[in-house]
Amino acid sequence: MFKTDLLKDKVIFITGGGTGLGRAMATRFLELGAHVIIASRKLEVLEKTAAELEAAIHPVGSILPLELDVRDYRAVESALEQTLEKFGRVDVLVNNAAGNFVSPTERLSNKAFDVVVDIVLRGSYNCTLAFGKHWIDRQQKARVLNIVTTYAWTGSGYVVPSAISKAGVLAMTRSLAVEWAKYGITMNAIAPGPFPTKGAWSRLVPPGVEEKMVQRIPLGRVGDHSELGNLAAFLVSDFSGFINGEVVTIDGGEWLKGAGEFNLLDFLSQEQWDLMEAQVRGAGKSKPGNG
Ligand code: HXC
Ligand code: NAP
To answer: Is 151 annotated as catalytic?
Structure first.
């Protein structure tokens, strides 16, 4: 869908880029000419991903795996320094790293609550702050892309630490999009619906629930990783330069279906609609005051 040099020479730092959707974005960015840094806790996973992508894509740009725990601000600064040593600059930060699992909230220990909030919310603002300070010092235009979810604004039971954190990341997106625009730093978010990944499915989808999830999606299917990769590529490219503070939902219509009062009428048959129409038209003909 894009020219193969869409992201030529851009240096893009993706937290959690070794697996799942982070890997899908790294793949697409490399195909489009970017240099990519993938950073997370498990260096061996990152190195394996880097080797596989190099073999599969033979990218023009290079891929740098970096060990990083986004909860640690000093470690974020160090990862930024290593990026600058290798590439001399960085143009885009993608806050993608996350931790999450389903659980009734009352079963969580305070540590379990902390671990998710620390990865998702603290991790995202740690990276944003360190990269933002660097870009402002250098007077460099740059871009941040945050990966949230649709329950950042609807909220959701059974993933409350994640919902709180993603809501915070969305608020950060809209706040800094305005505050840092004067420095030429733009900030947007993507809100994916269900995209099967090992990380998410193993922690969030109890047996037998996937089918029910799909039934909630008007398009009747889950997302394809390449669809997310292409959207992210557009949002980090120069062609989306005037988009700022936006959150783009990519969920097949899922959250709106849950929100719209009468969307549950999907199940009515044509015969039932005929009966309903007759009932409604009949009601319209009855004279006022007849009861
Ligand atoms: C209750 C749990 C638990 C569970 C862990 N804990 N799993 N409590 N139910 N299922 C508790 C532990 O008992 C411990 O508390 C505390 O949480 C920390 O657990 P650790 O295992 O020590 O933490 P850590 O090794 O740092 O692992 C972090 C993690 C893990 C978040 C728990 O799942 C992880 O590494 N996740 C990274 C990848 C990930 O989550 N990907 C999915 C993103 S998908 P105590 O008090 O016992 O010490 C996503 C999609 C959203 O966000 C939308 C989908 C549609
Ligand atoms: P995933 O494969 O589990 O990705 C999460 C990544 O975060 C992992 O690569 C993990 O790597 C990294 N990570 C976790 N803790 C970290 C830390 N402290 N420091 C640095 N990196 C850390 O899951 P995914 O489904 O691709 O999720 C990617 C993003 O999409 C997340 O923001 C998630 O909330 C969002 N999302 C996913 C879906 C979906 O359906 N899949 C839907 C909506 C939103 P390490 O273990 O190596 O650290």
So the answer is: yes
